[in-house]
Write a structure and sequence with these properties.
Length: 107
């Protein structure tokens, strides 16, 4: 377990992201933009590792944030950190894309 200072820093970031997700759930498009701007590089990095193709990863990234927009109201901070929730969506979307075979048609 990290030091109390580490957990405070993480929880501040997580609280900020959880607050943005709550605003997204309320239909605030600017909150989605802020959430995207602060998390998309991390999410994109995971998606690229899953699908291995940059163009496909860009499409999946859009799918991820579309799903975040639609399902923001289902996020529960008691079940995990905001980034973990988004990374789970990203990993699932990436795997779904691989299974669908759509990435092969773009090469």
């Amino acid at each position: 377990m990290g030091s109390p200072q580490d957990s405070r820093q993480l929880s501040t970031r997580d609280q900020d992201w959880a607050s943005l997700i709550k605003r997204v759930a309320d239909g605030d498009q600017s909150a989605l933009t802020l959430l995207y701007d602060s998390t998309s590089r991390l999410v994109f990095g995971l998606v690229v590792r899953v699908v291995t193709d940059r163009a496909t990863a860009e499409e999946v990234l859009l799918d991820v944030y579309t799903q975040v927009w639609r399902q923001a109201s289902t996020y529960d901070s008691k079940r995990g950190a905001p980034l973990a929730w988004m990374m789970t969506i990203a990993r699932t979307r990436g795997i779904d894309r691989l299974r669908s075979g759509k990435h092969e048609h773009q090469k």
